[in-house]
Amino acid sequence: MGLVLIKQAPPDGYTLGCGQGGNMVIVPLAFAKVAYNSRTDFTPISMMASNFLGLAVSTKSPFNDVKGLIDFAKANPEKLTFGTNGEGAFLHFATEQFGLMAGFKYVHVPHRGMGEVFTQILGGGIDATLASYISILPMVEGGKMKLLGIARSNRLPDSPTVPTIAESVPGFSSGGWFGIIGPAGMPPDIVDRLNKEINFALRQPDVLARMKTMGLEVHTEAPRFFTELLERDFVNWGKVVKEIGFKPR
């Protein structure tokens, strides 16, 4: 509903909203009827922040690293179970991409939310999950889950001992993003001014610190960066949807 209101607003810079990878890319790919076109109905202004996923299992799991999990999955096709927050959700497609790039087949176990997924992992009902790093972290720190790897291009400076999944599956990284958008047709000078003001705010130490506690990495690039990211994501996830034969609902 929020994106539809932005779409219908005058392009004068006074009506803005937050777009994210889920509602701007995944929803249009997962559903046959969507009331907006993310590529033509909006003006990308500032891609503010992104997060990344982590590969987690129970501390009781026999898997201790990404390679061990992949080796098991390859040797036992469609035996390894992964939980996500639903069929056609971002985490479902991210898990599918992980399997495609690593070369294994698994069993997808969709749930109504990630709380259910975590409960199932802790109880031994499912084997693993790809979920946002920040949502996994409390259970890892509490000794209930093992973090096998993170889905970003390089290791975290604050946690250098945690490997990236890309060290076992070259090129794999995955996560969400959040950015400010406006209606299509906004004048470039207004877009540039808004972008500069937003970026200025994002660079403030208190904002950076708060974003970090939320598991978000700040971005302060030009509007073009956001536009290109949106297009790359449509190509990337569109390819995954096609390869797995997913039919929009």
3D structure, described in words:
By secondary structure, the protein is an alpha+beta fold. The chain folds into two domains: 11-51 and 176-243, 3-Layer(aba) Sandwich (D-Maltodextrin-Binding Protein, domain 2); 53-167, Periplasmic binding protein-like II (D-Maltodextrin-Binding Protein, domain 2, 3-Layer(aba) Sandwich), CATH 3.40.190. The protein has helices at 2-8, 21-30, 66-75, 90-102, 114-123, 133-141, 188-202, 205-213, 223-244; strands spanning 17-20, 42-50, 53-58, 81-84, 107-110, 128-132, 145-150, 177-183, 217-218. It is globular, with a radius of gyration of 19 Å.
Radius of gyration: 19 Å
Topology-level CATH name of the largest domain: D-Maltodextrin-Binding Protein, domain 2
Please state how the strands of the largest beta sheet are arranged side by side.
1-8-2-9
Structural class: alpha+beta
**Biggest sheet features:** 4 strands, antiparallel
What is the CATH architecture annotation of the largest domain? 3-Layer(aba) Sandwich
Distance between the termini: 18 Å
CATH class of the largest domain: Alpha Beta
Kindly report the oligomeric state of this protein: single chain
Number of domains: 2
Shape, per Cα inertia axes: globular
Overall residue-averaged pLDDT value: 97
Helix content: 40-55%
The overall strand count is: 9
Strand content: 15-25%
Total helix count? 9
